[in-house]
Amino acid sequence: MAGDEDEARRDASHWYVRLREEESDEAVRAGFARWLDADPAHGEAWRSMCATMEAVGRAPAEWRSYSLPGQSRRGSGNRRQGRRWSQPRKRRAGVAIAAVAAACAFALAVPTISLRLQSDHMTGAGDIEQVRLADGSTVQVGPNSAIAVDYSESGRTVRLLSGQAMFDVTHDAARPFRVQAGEVTTTVLGTSFDVRMLGDATSISVARGHVRVEDAGATPTAKRDLLAGDTVRIDASHAIETGRVAPQLVGGWRSGEGLAENRTIANMVEEIRPWFRGRIFITDAKLAARRVTGIYDVRHPEQALAMIIQPHGGRITHITPWIMVVSGS
């Protein structure tokens, strides 16, 4: 039965894509109606997919009902015939499908436009850019990341607007080097370190040298001095988690390594998102809270995600080529 359910979910995703791309094709609509009416499992798969899209804010709740032209009942002597869509219903379904597609496109486009206006350097999904700054310092800007550079005679500031970056800083005692990531500021004199804003947390790891991390959002302002191998993670509530890592592993994301040491699946999804040219949603809170340990090749997002979630009963559903939904068993 599990195989039938998986096939129904795959078919539902297939029909979603076809209806989105060929909404005016009457043959496609008729085929969709026949598929829905062929088996109650198809209707359940379609409702489940629509509920998932609603849960992630991409589809109206009413789509679950008016997108179903009819269902069959197993064990009944007379198969109930599927109801034909009336023209108004067809138009409503087309509008709903178009609205879902537009919402997804809007969600993808708006943050990108805003970041592009603010940033000096910006990367796409899966891309890494090597940037040499005016003082000889270098920045490796991670995938789906953006930075803004502000140099003056008295100081050097780089704002991490999104994502992650690895810094190798040239010493200049007269001009301190600072990296601002939201409310968290990292100040250095000469060092190599990593700053990351993934999900709702900011983390700093030091490969070489010495940095001071200050969280202006905490009351009073929280400060930590980090040396080589030290890490600190500050979440949205300004709680601080410290740790240690082998200095040579700092910035491992540059070679596509997603390192997990007793980390939640939700954390690892955040690691994978910058490498995927679309959106990843996780809808099962219990699955998201499960912990994993391992090294995953995040350059191949779907494979890495499958390796992380499948041992815990998780599954991936493709809504479109650009949307992956992670759910529990």
Secondary-structure blueprint:
Layout: H1 2-21, H2 26-38, H3 40-55, H4 63-66, H5 87-118, E1 121-122, E2 129-132, E3 138-141, E4 146-151, E5 156-168, E6 177-181, E7 184-188, E8 192-198, E9 201-208, E10 210-215, E11 222-227, E12 230-234, E13 240-244, E14 257-264, H6 265-272, E15 279-282, H7 285-289, E16 291-297, H8 301-309, E17 315-320, E18 323-327
Parallel strand pairs: 5-6, 15-18
Antiparallel strand pairs: 1-4, 2-3, 3-5, 4-5, 5-8, 6-7, 7-10, 8-9, 9-12, 10-11, 12-13, 14-16, 17-18
Q: Per DSSP, what share of the residues sits in E-state strands of 2 or more residues?
A: 25-35%
Overall structural class, as computed from helix and strand content, comes to alpha+beta
Q: Tell me the span between the first and last alpha carbons.
A: 13 Å
Instruction: Provide the low-confidence segments as ranges.
Output: 56-102
**Share of residues in helices:** 25-40%
Helix tally? 8
Q: Which CATH class of the largest domain is shown? A: Mainly Beta
Please tally the β strands and state the result: 18
CATH structural fold name of the largest domain:
Jelly Rolls
Specify Rg, calculated over alpha carbons: 24 Å
Largest sheet: 13 strands, mixed
Domains (count): 3
- Mean pLDDT across residues: 81
Order of helices and strands: HHHHHEEEEEEEEEEEEEEHEHEHEE
CATH architecture of the largest domain: Sandwich
Shape field:
elongated
